[in-house]
Amino acid sequence: MLNVKPNQNLIIDLDSSCYNALIRILIKCLKFSPLMKAITMSEDVPLVHLSKDFSTAIYKIEDIINFEVLNRNTSILKPNFYKLLALVTPKVSIDPESIPTTYLIEMFFQMGYTGDISLPSYFRNLFLPPMWNGLFTLLFKSFSEKVLGSDSASMFFYTLISGLYHAIKLDFGYVIWAQFGQGTSSSRRNPKISFADFWSNVVNRSLIHFMVPQMQHYLMTEILMLQTTRFVMLDPRNFEFFGSIPEVLLEKCHWKMPLENAIFRDYKKIPSFGKRKDKATPFGGMKVMKKSKNPVPKPQSPSPVLQYQSKELTSICPLVCG
Q: Is 195 a member of any domain?
């Protein structure tokens, strides 16, 4: 039976009062961001079901993942995965794959990064000032599957941060779905469940659909929450420059909160360090994705280990039907 990685894909507590004053404003921004549900949701499901369902998952076409529930074939479509995580795709959105590396590097330098980041693999969050290091750590703990491994995996993670930082119309679901699907092959290399928090929600919906009784004696899946008491901020005295929060991000979060919000007042009292170079437009050099009414999925070349023999679907989960 596969196990859940204990220190990855943690649930994030978005109670800003639990955090250092330097990062409270960013916690508020996360609370009203497109990623809110993705970093806070999970379901208690029997580990035996989660393990078996995940081990049968096949990601062969980019818009669908097939898996089995008690030997019954079912699947989840990308649009329904979006709904599960409350990820809304703008009608006109930025293609995540079109964001250049130089754009991400400039973003980190605007935050106050002091180290070498000529390649994504060179990035070290210890070179970020406390506020941005804290944000990076939170997202890393929630989406750590995206950072471990190749430079391309790191790029996906940095793209998420870029979408939040610049408050652009990024297709966050596209980034998360791609990594979620590719994670299905991890069980062939490592006896651990990849993206267990997301899979717990998928499996829970499937068990409800097939009316599988919950056995009390089963070992339940435990998705841990990040312990805010152990969340340590870096010493601000070690940094000469603190990149401020972009106005576009503050404005996007501010209208969703009361104007007299104490956290915004506290942030305005924090002195600025140096000058921050703003881009003229966050869309420079990026491609815009237009939502197609009838998208045609592109088949991906399956790994020889993942050769999939087609079977007649005996039942389709509501995740497919919507």
A: yes
For tokens 């204990």, the residue is 6
The CA distance from 226 to 197, in Å, is 13
pLDDT at 304: 31
Let me know if residue 150 belongs to a domain.
Answer: yes
DSSP letter for 15, please: -
Look up tokens 């979060």; give the residue: 253
Q: What is the dihedral of CA 206, 210, 215, 220, to 10 degrees?
A: -10
Q: Please write the tens of the pLDDT for every residue from 81-120.
A: 999 999 988 788 888 889 998 999 999 999 999 888 887 7
Q: Which amino acid is at 231?
A: F
Distance CA 273, CA 111 (A): 11
Q: Alpha-carbon distance 235 to 306, whole Å?
A: 47
Structural domains of the chain, count: 1
Whether residue 48 contacts residue 203, with contact meaning beta carbons closer than 8 Å, is answered with no
